[in-house]
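Box 3.1 A note on notation
Throughout this textbook, protein chains are presented in two layers. The first layer is the amino acid sequence; the second is a token string describing backbone geometry. Keep the layers aligned when reading.
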Amino acid sequence: MTSPVGLVQGPDGLLYYISISTGQIRRIVWRGVTAAASATPWAGYSPLTVNFSSAGSQSPGGGALSYQWDFGDGSTSAEPNPSHTYTSATVHTFVATLTVTSPRGSNSSTVDITVGSLPPVPTITSPGGALSVRPGQTVNFAGGATDAEDGAIPADRLNWTVLLHHCYAPTDCHIHTVEDYAGVASGTFLAPDHEDLAQIELQLTAKDSGGLQDTASVLIGPVTTMLSLRSDPPARSWRWIPAV
């Protein structure tokens, strides 16, 4: 790096800095091996058959990838996308580990598998996804969750997150976290003031007594900015119109 100043993380998650001696803006990109592990389903009753995936694992610098799964119960696999069946007489969480290796090195990723329990099911009852809002408008939210073992999830195990999807273009978007509301079944928030095809995502995360959690979400918007137009000389009347 030549004379770096002003190191920041960009909306794409990468690092950027200014080279004060060259007058350039430069980007730092990870070129090593990346492991990405996922599983479906990740919770359920014994015996539980889980389909694992290594999709997203890569080696941008080149070289073929090899895979090694450790399922956390003494079993392993060298397949990129294996299936495995877990058994347990009690509620137990197994940690499955994927290690991806290429000539450029290796990297690992984990995923938790809970056997003997199901996660809660959160439901957002308000607002609906068809709602269109203006900056500063009050939005009411409400919801709850049920669990196969616990029944109704109490409000103190609910957490709400308001996200703003900010897009410069339909394919160029990033996300801002606006607010979190913990331990409530309902509440209100003010629609944030933003531009460029902004949409609000409201998430409800519920956690059961065993620590399992799941999230429901709804998209609201777009957030429409309203402008007042007046003529010069003044006209007899004016009206609000949506900004383009």
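The mean pLDDT is 88. DSSP finds no helices and 21 strands in the chain.
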